[in-house]
Amino acid sequence: MLSQRWQSAAGAGSTAGLAADIAAPEEHYWHDLNDYQLSLQQHINERDGLLQRVDRAGQQLLLLKSINVLNDTFRLWHDGPFGTISGFRLGRSQERAVEWDEINAAWGQAVLLLHTMAQQCRLNILAYQLLPMGSRPRVADKRGSYDLFGPVSKLWGGTHAKAMLGFLACLKEFGTLRAHGRRCTGTSECRRMDIAEGQPSLFEFPFAIEGDQVGSHSIRLSMLSKDDDWTKALKLLLANPKRALQVGPPQGSMAVLMGQGRVRRRLPVHRMPVATGHVLAGLRAARQGRQFPAPC
Fold it and tell me: Which domain range does residue 282 map to?
């Protein structure tokens, strides 16, 4: 009996001593655990704030990518029978005689727009050279330059007619290169080559350009032509670059700031390590007087 009591007292004393030895490390551990959980929560809050900023930046990027600077700068629209660019009417009629200063300004905007689109898409137009010079634009070739501004007489308007035909040739070449990525003698040839290679064209002008005609309306201004027909041809002429602006620049041009996709890296969620769980299990076992569990 005495030996049993002595053994039980010794066991109780050893258990009390073990509990006293573990009390200080346990308190230190719980302080460390609280600090760890606090730092973890701060890290999670910082991560969530960073992800929110990334989402807002992505939304702003999509908004900026949907904005076409050229479409806002060179507004292509219509005013009755006239096509307009940046608010300037291009053409004239018997009922509404538009001043040549306004027509010259419209031609200057049209030349600058086509020249800018060709540079933006990195296309080298070989037919003619566009010379945007404000309200006095010109179109040049190997023989010389031609004035694309008036006033123009129907009897002596050869230089102005060559300039308009040169601009029309540049617009047609731009549309062919932009849509098919190659130079072709005609639209039908480009389509056959696209079908043979299995590559669909990006877009097509709504009004075909053939020679001096845009959608079966001649761009020439002569004694035999009427101002209304000339104005109609110019209105259809402005509809073609408007279609190119709606499609936008190709990928890889300087207008494309970033790729379409956005890679988001999610930060890992921190979990309690296995060693921490093992220590907690040991503390609980010591309180209950059981044997300290062995680590897995």
Answer: 265-296
pLDDT beneath 70: ranges in the chain = 1-14, 16-17, 154-157, 180-202, 224-225, 248-296
Instruction: List the beta strands (DSSP E) in 179-282.
Output: 209-210, 213-214, 217-218
Q: Six-digit token pair at 40?
A: 């973890």
User: Amino acid identity, residue 73?
Assistant: T
Q: Output the pLDDT for position 191.
A: 56
Tell me if 180 sits within 8 A of 123, measured CB to CB: no
Q: Are residues 105 and 214 in the same domain?
A: yes
d(CA 274, CA 236): 74
Q: What is the pTM of this model?
A: 0.64
The residue among 97, 125, 92, 93 whose CA lies nearest residue 111 is 125
CA 178 and chain centroid, separation:
17
Domain count, the chain: 2
Task: Specify the pLDDT at position 177.
Answer: 84
Kindly list the strands in the beta sheet with 209-210, ordered across the sheet, starting from the edge strand earlier in the chain. Answer: 209-210, 213-214, 217-218
